[in-house]
Amino acid sequence: MVEDGGEEEAEGDSGEMPAATAAPPLQRCNGFLPGKEAEDGGRAGGGERAEAEAMLSAAGGRVETRLSRRRLAVLAVFSCYSLLNAFQWIQYSILSNVFAVFYGVSFTQIDWLSMVYMVAYVPLILPATWLLDTRGLRLTALLGAGLNGLGAWLKCGSLAPGRYPLTLAAQAVCAVAQVFILGLPSRIASVWFGPTEVSTACAVAVLGNQLGTAVGFLLPPVLVPNTPNDIDLMAHNISIMFYGTAIVSTLLFFLTGVVFEEKPKYPPSHSQAVLQTVPPEDYSYKQSIVNLFRNIPFVLLLISYGIMTGAFYSVSTLLNQMIVTHYEGEEVNAGRIGLTLVVAGMVGSIICGLWLDYTKTYKQTTLIVYILSFIGMLVFTFTLDLGYLTVVFVTGGVLGFFMTGYLPLGFEFAVEITYPESEGTSSGLLNASAQIFGIVFTLVQGKLTTDYNPRAGNLFLCAWIFVGIILTALIKSDLRRHNVNSGIMNLDVKAVPVESPVEPENTALKIQSAL
């Protein structure tokens, strides 16, 4: 496999595949409707199908795959505007005491500036994934970057006490932008990157969001120190943060328009080459959703991913309150602990991504990381009130390494066990589950922390993470995408619902290794 270098492109790797004319058109089980090929009398389904069949039948039935150099720019720009969106999510929570004084509202109302991200995601994820599957990657990316910038500029109008409703509305716009961002890492990785780098690319894309959370923990306490006796100075400091965010987000929106394309000229892997043979008019989003929810391993992963990621959202939102409860006046260190948690998680994400690309041990790695996250949460819970901030830094780092490092594992494991379903749809459902659990966990843990102490809230999360371990252990590992890329799987790629009796043998797709 080689990189696409424009007019001086080298010849790409090839993998043998039966010529398109040797069998009826392919059917795909990711929501494509049965019978449309028969209605066409075996004819190819449109211009894109003809182009795909020509590619598959070229050079004696060998499919050409290439890596585009543009893929690195796409990944970099996406990671940057995902970073900014995550920064805007956490910038209020890490300064909850500052913004509560500035806007004259309660801590619960400040918590809602974080939870609005979770609330907006749940009802909007299905329309967003439908848009991604039917209108494509470029439009979805532009919407995410554009709404991110719009929300940032609206926040600049809320720089006065009493304008909490406006800053909540601005944060809601950023929350809508998030819907068009969180589901893209696995789609970008699959569409633009080859099989030996796809898990690492997904981890890097997720890392951008994690880095934004890290910057959100670190930078706001530095830019906006707590000055309760000087509201004008507080407003000035907040304006620096808001205007800086708005300017950078606008620049990233224009870069997204320049860099993003729908897909590379040549598919980067055999699994992508297979998916490109299906005409878009045969796609049924409803059938895709139905197929996913009939996939029991995916449903188990959906719940376990929601538990783990929801717990991370809750800890991130309430970290300032937990730290200040035991270490009064340590707002800056609370931000640094959050930074430690997320940076350690970024390292964990990259290590896990590299490990998956090397070993393909998806279930084993996911289960081990889940267990270690549970242990890390227990240690963090029982050392939080010892009176030593250094210990909290260490335990927070260990917790973050495993808990945040789990995020790309869930995305990639889902793509493997649901192939050839749309990566955007499976990722979107995982994120929706995380938002639902995040809302519930944040409300319950916040109530327990306020009424009792942080330990009670953390033990609540520990109990749920233990449930997630059990669910993860029950997942059946069926690495369908990996098997197709390896040329070792005869995949019956069906477009029919599960109960359909029509499963002709000649729709079996035999991917043969070119080695």
UniProtKB/TrEMBL annotation:
Pfam families: MFS_1. It comes from the Eukaryota. Keywords: Cell membrane, Erythrocyte maturation, Glycoprotein, Membrane, Phosphoprotein, Receptor, Transmembrane, Transmembrane helix, Transport. The keyword Glycoprotein applies. GO terms for molecular function: choline transmembrane transporter activity; ethanolamine transmembrane transporter activity; heme binding; heme transmembrane transporter activity. PANTHER family: HEME TRANSPORTER FLVCR1, MAJOR FACILITATOR SUPERFAMILY PROTEIN-RELATED. This is Choline/ethanolamine transporter FLVCR1. It comes from Strigops habroptila. The gene is FLVCR1.
